[in-house]
Amino acid sequence: MNDIENRRKNIPKSIRFEVLKRDKFTCQYCGKAAPDVILHIDHINPVANDGDNDITNLITSCEGCNLGKSDKLLSDDSALKKAKSQMDKLQERREQLEMMMEWQRGLKSLANTTVSELCTYWEDLAPGYQLNDNGKNDIKKWVRTFSIPEITSAMDVAAEQYLVFESDNKVTLESWAAAFSKISGICRVSRQAKTEPDIRELYYIRGILRNRLRYCDDGLALELLRDARFWGVGLDVLRSIALQTRSWTSFKADVDFAIQDTDAWQMAGRSGAE
Ligand SMILES: [Zn+2]
After folding, report:
1. Ligand 1 mean position, distance from CA 31 (Å)
2. Higher pLDDT, 192 or 153
3. DSSP 43
4. Between the CA atoms of 141, 146, 149 and 153, what dihedral angle is there, to the nearest 10 degrees?
5. For 156, which of 64, 106, 187, 215 is 20 to 30 Å away at the CA?
6. Where are the annotated coiled coils located (predicted)?
7. 46: CA distance to ligand 1 center in Å?
8. How far is the CA of 32 from the centre of ligand 1 (A)?
9. What is the second-level CATH architecture of the domain 3-75?
10. Distance between Cα 147 and ligand 1 center (Å)
């Protein structure tokens, strides 16, 4: 057995499993994943340079990438050595499949726990009823798209806005159903507002344009306003352009001018000219 394989064998199975899970069973050099390739655990700082088996010094690498790095790993020419190495590889593949199954079982049980925690969270907010399988399936779907904080805060908003209490520990069934049906929509809207905090204001400015101008290209107007924000033009500037402009053509020219007036544009222009 050569050096590299020795080192690999010396990494305890539990640490190898942790590294593989962290790297999602995927070669961090080329992106190929098990079970399509056999994965090795590679030392970032080599053992020869005092690299240790700390998880931060270990990385998942497929066989190809690992071989490319360490020349002549499989230079063994005797048939016996080859057979032995093939057996080792089979064993390795089997172990990795087992690890991957365990990982996936872990992910699944984590997902189930998450769903039941969220059910409880909702049932506490909206007391009196329990979620049926359809409700649980809805939550399962949300978990695939949204983070847990996104879902719980949407639940908070839905509860606050739509629930009607008929006693201290019971809400009306009607309001319960209405509130629950709003949760995913609230998640979606608040995510959009987070990635683009100006969006409501930009829609509003475009509304001014639509009211004032005889012609307004809705899609292009929003694009121009976004561009202007990207380059650092203030919302107040855009609002006053919209309030003063006389035509679609002059609106475009005014926004262009405002963009060229920003520091960011001038710096980009300068470096681009060189
Ligand atoms: Zn690779």
Report:
1. 6
2. 153
3. E
4. -80
5. 106
6. 73-100
7. 17
8. 6
9. Orthogonal Bundle (1.10)
10. 30
